[in-house]
Structures are given as C-alpha cells and as structure tokens.
C-alpha cells in the first residue's frame, strides 16, 4: 500500500513538472519565434514604416501574420471612420517575409520533439500530455503581445480630429496563434518523437 502511494505521488509530481516545463517552453518558443522573425524582417519593417512605428511593433505584426492572424487598422477623420485588415507578409515581395510562415510551426514542432525526448515519452498519450501544455505559455505570450503591439496616433488637420490605430486582431491572435498553433504543432512534434522512439 505504501509503495502504491509513493508511486502515485511520484507520478503526479512528474505530471505537474512536465506541465510546468511544457508551459515554460511555450513561453520560450514564442520568444524564439519572435526573435527569429525580428532577424529576418527588421530591415523590411524599417523600410516600410520608418520612424512612424516602433520597430519591435512592426516585427510583431509580421509575427502575427505568420500565424495567419490579420492586423486590424482603423482610423477616423472627423466624423468619418473605417477599419480594414492587412497581412503584411502577403503584401511583401520579400522571400524572407514569406519564410516567416514556417517559423512558428518549426519552432513549436521542435519544442514538442525536445519535450518528448527530455521526458522519455514512449506512447502517444504521454506525448499529447507533454506537448499540449506548451499552449499555456505560448497563449499567454501571444495574447499579451497582441495587446502591447498596438500602435495608435492622433492629430488635427485644419481643426478636424484625426486618429488611427494598428494592432493584431485579438480574438484570432489568441485562438489561432495562441491556442491552435501550439496545440497542433507542439503536440505533433511530441507524438512523432514518441512514435519514432517506440520503434
């Protein structure tokens, strides 16, 4: 009876530690994906936006576009206003911009593989249990990032108020980029590692 209790305790601690490690690596995966995007696209962001937009925000917009999340633009001119969405990667002719589409899946897939090998996962159920919690950390970073990546400005021309803002669409940022991407790609990486290790 005592050995069964000790085994259950060890298993629950191991499960908790794997969830914490997976969530932590989700945060790291988001940071690595963003920094890789920064290296690839910062020059284009500088050319496109100049000093009008903070460079890190412009890179963030491309990073969200790489997750198939559009960036929302809205503006008002007096009593007139409107909004639209834009995908900077789709509008770019740069190959480094197009390459951004593969960064999030590759980083997340690699994270899943790393976790599966680190925790010596041997079956698909364990792989899902190790890969899926990457979503926790990734969703937090991507959700907060969508909020802080907003850029807005206002002014006046001939006494008429003008304002505008640009930001990743929050709902798709959280659902697509924060939840679906890590859930699919990190879990797939962990499952593939487990299947190959089981052979």
UniProtKB/TrEMBL annotation:
The keyword Kinase does not apply. The chain crosses the membrane at residues 20-41, 98-116, 128-149, 169-196. The keyword Membrane applies. Residues 1-196 form the DUF7978 domain. Pfam families: DUF7978 (PF25933). InterPro entries: DUF7978. This is DUF7978 domain-containing protein. It comes from Natronoglomus mannanivorans. Keywords: Membrane, Transmembrane, Transmembrane helix.
């Amino acid at each position: 009876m005592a050995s069964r209790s000790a085994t259950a305790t060890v298993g629950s601690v191991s499960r908790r530690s794997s969830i914490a490690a997976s969530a932590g690596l989700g945060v790291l995966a988001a940071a690595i994906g963003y920094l890789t995007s920064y290296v690839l696209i910062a020059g284009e962001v500088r050319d496109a936006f100049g000093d009008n937009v903070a460079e890190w925000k412009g890179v963030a917009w491309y990073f969200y576009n790489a997750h198939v999340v559009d960036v929302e633009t809205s503006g008002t001119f007096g009593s007139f206003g409107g909004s639209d969405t834009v995908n900077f990667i789709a509008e770019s002719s740069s190959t480094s911009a197009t390459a951004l589409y593969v960064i999030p899946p590759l980083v997340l897939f690699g994270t899943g593989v790393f976790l599966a090998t680190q925790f010596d996962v041997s079956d698909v159920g364990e792989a899902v249990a190790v890969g899926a919690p990457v979503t926790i950390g990734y969703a937090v970073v991507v959700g907060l990032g969508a909020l802080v990546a907003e850029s807005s400005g206002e002014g006046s021309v001939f006494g008429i108020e003008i304002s505008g803002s640009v930001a990743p669409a929050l709902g798709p940022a959280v659902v697509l980029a924060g939840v679906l991407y890590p859930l699919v790609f990190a879990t797939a990486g962990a499952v593939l590692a487990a299947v190959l290790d089981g052979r």
